[in-house]
Design a protein that fits this description.
Helices cover 30% and strands 18% of the residues. The chain is an alpha/beta fold. It folds into 2 domains: 193 residues, 3-Layer(aba) Sandwich (Rossmann fold); 63 residues. An 8-stranded parallel sheet has the order 4-3-2-5-6-1-7-8, with helices on both faces. Helix 1 runs parallel beside helix 3. The chain is elongated, with a radius of gyration of 22 Å. This is Glycosyltransferase subfamily 4-like N-terminal domain-containing protein.
C-alpha cells in the first residue's frame, strides 16, 4: 500500500486540486489482479451540520477522481449528505461529530458508530477536514482494532497551538502541505523537511482577464467566502466607507451568503453598512440555482 500524507494544511483552490490528485491517483496500465490488490477503502468525513462550502466541493472533487472504494461520513442534516444521496452516490453514511462536553453521551454513541464503520467496511484511510471530525477520528485511532492511515486537511488559516503539533502530531507525518500567505507565520509550529509550503494567491496563468473588456466606470466587488464572523466580509464594507464619496459611489458589493441580522451588521460595520451599495444573497447551492 502506498504511503499518503497524514496531514494536509491548505486554504486555496490550487492546493485543493493538487491534494485531490495525490489522494485519488489514476491507475496506470496494470493487470486487473494488481488493481484489485491495490484497491483501498477511503472514508472522507465532513463535520458541517448544514452547508460546508469549500469542504463540500473538496470532497466531491475527491469522489469524482478516486479510483478506490470511497465512503463519506457526515451529519444527516448536512447539505453534503442530502446532495450526495439525491445524486445516488453510494456509501454515504450518517455520522455526527459532537465536540462539546455537554454532548459526551452523543460523542460516545457516534464514536462507537465510527468504530463499527471502520470494522465493517475495512477502512484503510480516513481523511478528515476539520477539528471536530479530526478529533473523533483520533479517538477512533486509539480504540480501533484495525490499523488505518489518518489524513487531515486543514482548510482555514487558524494556527495549530499547544503541545499537540510539536509532539504526537508531527511524528507520523509523511508529508505536510502548508498553504499560507507569505505575510503570516506558518500555521503549524513544526520545523521539518516534510513540510511543503504552497503560497496563497491567484494563478494568473490560468485566471486571465477577457480579451474584450467593456469599459465602465462602475466596479462590482463580489465576495463568495460566506458571512460567518471570521470570513471578514465586513472589512470590505468598512474599507469602502473610508474612500472619498467621489470614488466610493463607483463601487457596488455583492456578498454571497446568509444575510446577517441587523444587529450584527451594525456592530461589524461600525454603525452603518452602506445598504444602498451592498447586496447579500442567499446561499447558492448549485450553479444554476438563483441566489
Amino acid at each position: 500500500m502506498m504511503e499518503l500524507p497524514i496531514l494536509i494544511v491548505q486554504t486555496n483552490w490550487r492546493l485543493k486540486a493538487a491534494s485531490a490528485m495525490l489522494l485519488a491517483p489514476s491507475h496506470q496500465a496494470v493487470s486487473p489482479t494488481h488493481r484489485m490488490r491495490e484497491m483501498m477503502n477511503i472514508l472522507y468525513t465532513n463535520f458541517h451540520v448544514a452547508g460546508g462550502g469549500g469542504h463540500d466541493v473538496y470532497i466531491r472533487t475527491l469522489l469524482k477522481q478516486s479510483t478506490h472504494r470511497t465512503y463519506v461520513a457526515c451529519p444527516k442534516s448536512s447539505y453534503l449528505y442530502r446532495s450526495l444521496t439525491r445524486d445516488n452516490v453510494a456509501n454515504v453514511l450518517a455520522l455526527d461529530f459532537p465536540g462539546r462536553l455537554s454532548q459526551s453521551v452523543h460523542l460516545v454513541t457516534q464514536l462507537r458508530r465510527l468504530l463499527t464503520i471502520i470494522a465493517e467496511h475495512q477502512i484503510d484511510i480516513i481523511h478528515t477536514n476539520g477539528s471536530a471530525d479530526n478529533r473523533l477520528v483520533s479517538y477512533a485511532r486509539l480504540l480501533s482494532r484495525r490499523h488505518f492511515k489518518h489524513v487531515f486537511t486543514k482548510h482555514n488559516g487558524f494556527p495549530v497551538r499547544g503541545r499537540y503539533p510539536n509532539g504526537a502530531f508531527s511524528r507520523p507525518i509523511t508529508r505536510l502541505f502548508l498553504s499560507a500567505s507569505r505575510f503570516i507565520s506558518p500555521l503549524v509550529s513544526v520545523q521539518s523537511d516534510k513540510i511543503v509550503v504552497i503560497r496563497n494567491g491567484v494563478d494568473t496563468d490560468y485566471w486571465r482577464p477577457p480579451v474584450t473588456v467593456i469599459p465602465s466606470a462602475q466596479i462590482r466587488l463580489v465576495s463568495i467566502a460566506g458571512t460567518s464572523g471570521y470570513k471578514g466580509w465586513h472589512y470590505l464594507i468598512n474599507a469602502l466607507k473610508l474612500l472619498p464619496e467621489s470614488v466610493r459611489h463607483r463601487f457596488t458589493v455583492t456578498i454571497v451568503g446568509t444575510l446577517p441580522d441587523i444587529a450584527t451588521r451594525l456592530e461589524r460595520c461600525r454603525g452603518d453598512w452602506l445598504p444602498e451599495q451592498v447586496t447579500f444573497t442567499a446561499l447558492c447551492l448549485s450553479r444554476t440555482a438563483p441566489c
